Amino acid sequence: MAAGGGTKAAGRLYDIVVFGASGFTGQFVVEEVARTAAAAGEGQLCGGPLRWAVAGRSREKLRAVLERAAERLGKATLGEVGVLLCDVGDAGSLAAMARQTRLVLNCVGPYRFFGEPVVEACVENGASCIDISGEPQFLEGMYLKYNEKAAEKGVYVVGSCGFDSIPADMGVLYTRDKLKGTLTAVESFLSVKSGPEGVCVHDGTWKSAVYGLADEDNLRKLRKRIGYAPVPVVGAKLKKRGFLFYNREFKEYSIPFMGSDASVVKRTQRYLHTELQETPVQYGAYVNVGGLGSVIKLMFAGMLFLLLVKFNFGRKLLTKYPEFFSAGRFTKEGPTQKQMEGASFTMTFFGEGYSEGQDPQNGKPNVKICTEVKGPEAGYIATPIAMVQAAVSLLEDAASLPKRGGVYSPGAAFSKTKLIDRLNKRGVEFSVISKPEV
After folding, report:
1. pLDDT digits 0-9 by tens, 222-245
2. Which N-terminal residues, if any, form the signal peptide (predicted)?
3. 70 CB contacts (<8 Å, ≥6 apart)?
4. Measured between alpha carbons, how far is 214 from 202 in angstroms, rounded to an integer?
5. Is position 8 within any domain?
6. What three-state secondary structure class fits 390?
7. What's the CATH code of the domain at 77?
């Protein structure tokens, strides 16, 4: 494989280590790495075989995960895969892991509690690091603390490399690249479909949401400390929509998306504007929630959640009984295989801008475009695909990464790489729905 992520393959036993491989999400990431390694063995990656390992606290559990992955791929074994014993509470074991690999895929969350020791070990020991955090406070905190050090070491720390940030962040860039002219604003609408078995998410994601909403004040303080330069508004200002509105395009109700997408996209746009002098794109993220019955249920659940999340006792209740408080959407067991097979997502992007030769600082936008990112079940099929293809891009497309190492959002790290092509080949598909209308 090409040297990438700022570290030469020489002296490193592995290209990739999956940390937290026996966790709920980690096992699906292992499966996806195994698929990619099989493709590498067939010469589909530049330099031949992908050398990889799994890391976690229990050798037995790690072996069981490798056996399950082999079974899912219809193989007797996965061949040579390293097994590293490593604990997030043991800095020495994290350093030993980081020294052996070019890139760590960190699957151990909530990241606000367990993420920083892994980032620190990677940066100190010259390994790049990718995670699937949807927690803005963790992501931006890592930027504040480790961006300069990572740049010095020539390593890349890229957060939010799962669903929904990769579809959102790369979807905005895809929309921009498909518009002939200057894209100035985009709104995205997420629709999640479930099969007859319904939809369900593992409660690790629920915990991240509980702690994230409880800590919004500290996020504001953190942003003040970073001292972000304001991103200029180019073109007509994108209007913010209300908390709940009827969406004529989809014939259902929509609400603002509560995840990290808006902050991730904003970080990417700020980077592309300040470092590459590209026109920044304004962004609004929304999710479609269905008809009036769904809206009423959601509003009751949302009010209860926002009330409980403010108190320590309430947070304990929310994290102890996720199934009850989420009306069965979040469970400690996570989704069944059947639920995953029946689920899918679509993220639709409506962009507006100015045709070639038209000055975005004057007049109203005069072109529109609609694009889409579609994929399989979001949490445990699309997320591992996004994470592993981001890893391959980091290792393979080294010449297209930002010149300096550092702590990046996905769009900032991967805007010039082949990540979208790679995702398309693995079933997370980017397409233009309607060409620009003038």
Report:
1. 898 888 888 999 999 999 998 899
2. none
3. 34, 76, 77, 78
4. 20
5. no
6. helix
7. 3.40.50.720
DSSP 146: H
The sign one gets for the Cα dihedral 116, 122, 124, 128 is: negative
Q: How far apart are CA 318 and CA 323, in angstroms?
A: 9
Closest by CA position to 137, among listed 203, 212, 207:
212
Same-domain pairing of 95 and 124:
yes
Residue 392 backbone phi and psi in degrees, to 5: -60, -40
**How many alpha carbons fall within 13 Å on the CB side of residue 302?**
13
Token look-up 């992501």 returns 139
How open is the CA angle 387-391-396, to the nearest 5 degrees? Answer: 150
Output the six-digit token pair for 168. Answer: 């959102």
Q: What is the chain's length? A: 438
301-355 pLDDT per residue, tens: 778 877 888 888 888 888 888 888 877 778 778 788 888 888 899 999 999 999 9
Residue 20's H or E segment, with its range, is none
Q: What is the DSSP letter of 109?
A: -
DSSP state string for 391-417: HHHHHH-GGGS-SS-EEE-HHHHHTTS
How far apart CA 6 and CA 9 sit, in angstroms, is 10
366 and 414 inside one domain: no
Is 206 in the same domain as 234? Answer: yes
pLDDT above 80 (res 213): no
Measured in degrees and rounded to the nearest 5, phi and psi for residue 233 equal -90, 120
